[in-house]
Amino acid sequence: MDAKRAFIHRLFSTIAPRYDWFNRLASINLDRGWRRRAVAKSELGNGMTVLDVCTGTGDLALACADRLQGQGRVVGLDFNAAMLRPASHKAQRRRLSVQWLRGDALNLPFGSGTFDRVFIGFSTRNLSDLQAGVQEMHRVLKPHGRLVILETGRPSNRLVLAGYLVFLGTVARLIGLCLTGRLWPFTYLARSVKEFLRPPEFVALMDRCGFQASSLPLSMGLAMLYLAEKPA
Q: Full-prediction pTM beyond 0.85?
């Protein structure tokens, strides 16, 4: 686990300056719509407290802050300072209020039952201990709070799936190479998509962690939206 944490930290430190460009190009700009859908499905309301775990360059946290318009509290947490710097710059430019913190997703620096909503976008597959991370997010949620997870998907249509896997292994890696001059981070990211849990397996894991979870495919399954409620 320590080796994976160190590897992931080095990976995102390497690609942080071009991370947003990679997301836009590799998703054909679909990622913005996926984040909007996640915020809409979260039923985020005025006065709520929100945590975005593994916030990266902050797009999901900023989408929440834009929805709340100051009528609530949004915290974006990441363990990589290089990723948090562009997040802070974007918040200042857009005049949105987000508290940025450097912290560990497996040891969240908050008391139990702190947040109404917890988000994590395209990062669960990078956690060095997936179940421990989900349990931490469960801990910091209030009863009836909701965990909202955006993650890469696995299209059910075999032709779409085949094309998607070829795209990940070729075009997406080439985009990353052109943007950063490095291939190894995007080789890992492509492999992590292929090796991540299937949606029913991930829902079952969240249920074991105390949630009542469900999944929703987006864009023919290219992305998955997971909604999980913490019972009272």
A: yes
